[in-house]
Amino acid sequence: MKIGVFSASAPAFQQCPNRAMNAIKFLQNKGHEVILGELFYNKDFYRSGSIKDRASEFNNLLKLKCNIYISSIGGFCSNSIVGLIDFKLIKKNMIFAGNSDASPILNAISQKTKARVIYGPSLISHFGEWEKIYSDKTYAKLMESITSKVNVIEEFDYWTDDYINWDKFEKPKRKHKNKTEFEGKVIVKGKLIGGNLNSLATTDLFLKTKFFKNKILFIEDSHKNLEQIEKLFSFLFISGALKKIKAIIFGKYEKYEDFGSKIKPHILIKEIYKANQIKIPNLVYYIDCGHTHPTNSLLLRKKMKIDFNNKEITQYIKMRGVI
């Protein structure tokens, strides 16, 4: 497959050149042709380029008709280019993947086009891992979401959010045993929406309250503390989204700080529901998707089934060819 890489926010290569090249080599060794956007090696202080330049990079990559488009890394300002994307260039057999600050772009594409949109890995963060046990599992789940009729959200045997081995290998990351919790009815079905909440809060997504009706909301975040999470969750309530959704799925929160309170994000969301006298929806916490390793791939705007008895999450995909 031909994989196009866009840098819509942070100057990825300049931050971690060794990891970036390791990620490219990883995908090339899997048999893919990796096409780098024109800003991949660029740095404009805190970003890869100006707003116009970043939008131009994205649109120019679309003209190359790659099979898959993936974000190089996250950042803080990809929402700046959403209004400049030429959505007419996006075909239904294109695939877009990324996470973190790519969320505004991914959600805009999922709303405005029929392309397949995947919340999962970014190039450098996930495929640049020096311990390939993580990148191999992440890659397998990405391919499953692209080539299989059923996308099973896996509970991996272990996970890590150790913030080491970024641009060179230092020592093996600590592995944590996994346990995903399910609180809800027997079976819940609905289309999946969501992504990185901190990034999505900078878009018009939460102004469209009808958009959330009977949906399953996925949220995750990175390097946030308890008070920041409360602010974001209260924003969710104020927007009206929390009143309309069927279920909330939490991804793991990388390097979450609870100030010693032992209050986790799912506990805080329950407090907000109770304080506002709203029935708490079905909850799943904390799946492997987002900033931790390895990561699953979730298909946005596609039907999802949560089986609370058997503790399973699946998506059924109508197969179609890629470019």
* CATH fold type of the largest domain: Glucose Oxidase, domain 1
pLDDT averaged residue by residue? 96
Instruction: Note poorly predicted spans.
Output: none
- What's the CATH C level of the largest domain? Alpha Beta
Helix content: 25-40%
Strand line-up in the sheet with most strands: 6-16-15-10-11-12-13-9
Order of helices and strands: EHHEHEEHEHHEEEEEHEHEHEEEE
Terminal residue distance = 9 Å
What class would the helix/strand composition place it in? Answer: alpha/beta
Give the overall shape.
Answer: globular
InterPro entries: Carboxypeptidase_A_C_sf, Class_I_gatase-like, LdcA_N, Peptidase_S66_N, Peptidase_S66C, S66_fam
GO molecular function, one term: hydrolase activity
Protein name: LD-carboxypeptidase
Domain LD-carboxypeptidase C-terminal: 189-305
